Amino acid sequence: MPEGHKIHRQAQYLAAAFAGKALAVSSPQGRFAKEAATLDGTVLKEVFAWGKHLFLDFSGTYVHVHLGLYGDWRAKSGPNARLGLSDGSRSIYLSGPTTCELLDEGGVRAVLSRLGPDPLRNGSGDKERFVGAVRAKAVPVGKLVMNQAIVAGPGNIYRAECLFRTAINPYRKGKNIAASRLASLWEDLVEAMGEGLRTGVIDTLQTCYKREGASETDRRFAVYHRAGKPCPRCGRVVKEALLEGRRLFWCPNCQK
């Protein structure tokens, strides 16, 4: 499933390409045909992302998209194209999303109310909200960072890498982590995901640990998909386990 930085990049592209234009809206697959017909010929006002959710605002009527595991935006149509947008010279098609639905403003507010703060938005009070939500839970922080109601956007890579970068053990319960450490975790999510948004690539390995001639995984990550290899910080072996059915990577020696 794409992590939040990719959804924000898609929002930026769609806004730059289509915002302010009256669009031809279609559903080549047919599953969104009725909804597409109500939007056809209307102006796309803006596009924005919150975590892994994308919203296209057609002047108060919103298309809400969640890509899930298989969804993507493509330049060409196909048999699975749920939604098509065209300004006459450029087109884009949405295929395989988990969610593609029409919402009014109340519906958008309802979706956003279920989501935690987004590090890529980093609004006033978001850090404090994140810290408070984590410290209220007797649950491993490695689970909480993947809970979109706690923090919207991070996935498995940013979970592993940002917990490593802040030296927090993913099995430590939220209520047992100092507020200052969680504040540092939020700030690191903001930094790491912001870099991913800027470059389009998740490269979270800090410069001091980069080595010439390393494999792509070893060049980009400290622990993610590096089970059995030496930790770049302490040299001990990186471990892997399943947490809530998702692969978890960490260094038991230097993440406390």
TrEMBL record:
Keywords: DNA damage, DNA repair, DNA-binding, Endonuclease, Glycosidase, Hydrolase, Lyase, Metal-binding, Multifunctional enzyme, Nuclease, Zinc, Zinc-finger. It is an enzyme of class 4 (lyase). One of its GO terms (molecular function) is damaged DNA binding. The keyword Ribosomal protein does not apply. Gene3D superfamilies: 1.10.8.50, MutM-like, N-terminal. Residues 222-256 form the FPG-type domain. Residues 2-92 form the Formamidopyrimidine-DNA glycosylase catalytic domain. Signal peptide: none annotated. Its EC number is 4.2.99.18. The keyword tRNA processing does not apply. GO terms for biological process: base-excision repair. It comes from the Bacteria. SUPFAM superfamilies: Glucocorticoid receptor-like (DNA-binding domain), N-terminal domain of MutM-like DNA repair proteins, S13-like H2TH domain. Its cofactor is Zn(2+). It holds the Pfam family zf-FPG_IleRS. InterPro entries: FPG_cat (IPR012319), FPG_N (IPR035937), H2TH_FPG (IPR015886), Ribosomal_uS13-like_H2TH (IPR010979), Znf_DNA_glyclase/AP_lyase (IPR000214), Znf_FPG/IleRS (IPR010663). Belongs to the FPG family. This is DNA-(apurinic or apyrimidinic site) lyase. It comes from Winkia neuii. The lineage of its organism: Bacteria, Bacillati, Actinomycetota, Actinomycetes, Actinomycetales.
